[in-house]
TrEMBL record:
Protein name: Flagellar FliJ protein
Cross-referenced Gene3D superfamilies: 1.10.287.1700
GO molecular function term, any single one: cytoskeletal motor activity
Cell compartments where the protein resides: Cell membrane
Family: Belongs to the FliJ family.
Keyword Transport listed: yes
Gene symbol of the encoding locus: fliJ
One GO process term, biological-process aspect: protein transport
Membrane topology: Peripheral membrane protein
Keywords: Bacterial flagellum biogenesis, Bacterial flagellum protein export, Cell membrane, Cell projection, Chemotaxis, Cilium, Flagellum, Membrane, Protein transport, Transport
Record-linked NCBIfam families: flagell_FliJ
One cellular component (GO) term of this entry: bacterial-type flagellum
Keyword Glycoprotein: no
Any Pfam family hit: FliJ
Amino acid sequence: MESSNSMEFLFNMAEQTLSNTTSRLGVVRQEYIHETHQLNQLHDYEKEYQQKLQHTLTNTGISVISLQCYQGFIGSLRQIVTQQEHKVLNSRGIVNDVLLEWKKNQQNLKAYEILKKRSDNQRFLKESRLEQKMMDEFARRAASKRKNRW
């Protein structure tokens, strides 16, 4: 019986661990999606700003100071894009790590489930044998009493 309780405890712990990891996986995936969305927005903004500069240069012309301001801003924007790309890569790495942990926890849960089923089957078999033994003993005594009466 103690073995059955131990298996139940281990199974429940594995189930809780998997549940926690599943929740964490959802959170890190959402963070990854958010970081990727921000990167896409930055790329769009950079492209839009480049087009605006190109349009201004070809259609109306631009002063040297304005050109330097545009180029400085675009340089700063590229640095921000690079930082965001690093965030996305880091976030993707975290998702992959948590996903591996989730898979490991899922395998552990399945292993404990199998062990728990085996333990339950062994307990059931023991109980069945004990019950059969008691019934055989009861039948033997009843037969012995009938034999003694005749």
